[in-house]
Amino acid sequence: MELRLQKYLADAGIASRRACEELITSGRVTVDGKIVSKLGTKVNPEKSKVVLNGKAIKLKKTKTYIAFYKPKGVLSTMSDPLRRDCIANYFSDWNERLFHVGRLDKESEGLILLTNDGDWAQKVAHPKYGLIKRYRVSTGQALRSQEIDLLRSGVRIEGGVARAISAERIPEGVEISIHEGRNQIIRRMIESLGIEVLGLLRTDIGSIRLGELKAGKWRYLSNVEIINI
Would residue 149 show up in a list of annotated catalytic residues for this protein? Predict the structure, then answer.
């Protein structure tokens, strides 16, 4: 059975399907010795020789799903040419290729998912699935009622209006849920109110929770977590 090239790469654990499409259109993939830049090209998993950046790509026989607590100060990337601390350093002993789903900015911490399953990653990352993410934002004090109301009704940031699905006061700040994935959207929403963000922790992605996981540690997802994403 033939597969679309972007699905083949995603199933091989290269990246999400959308990211694999960008690799193809940028001319970094060859099939049987020829550069392929057209999306929708099909390959035979048993016979086609697929190469990315000079390295042959084979399908993974097993799928891996991991919850990782990204510490503050760690880059959300699986490689860094400047040798800065990044997610890859916590999985340097792994033989299989993993990629992270979504990201947190360097100064934020908390739950990030890693996998080699491109289709599953697509469900986690794509806005059309509306996966809810929950964050605890430290501001040094609880927000006022009117500020909470503004987060719920919508605040204007660069790129348009952003609205929280839910926002609840906590002693040191606010707990906020959102399904959007715009860059640093939580920070920008809080700062639009004239409030400084002292710390930002992602605690939930859909039904997957950070729980008791400590910074820099990881765990395998359960079958229930994988299926219910």
Answer: no
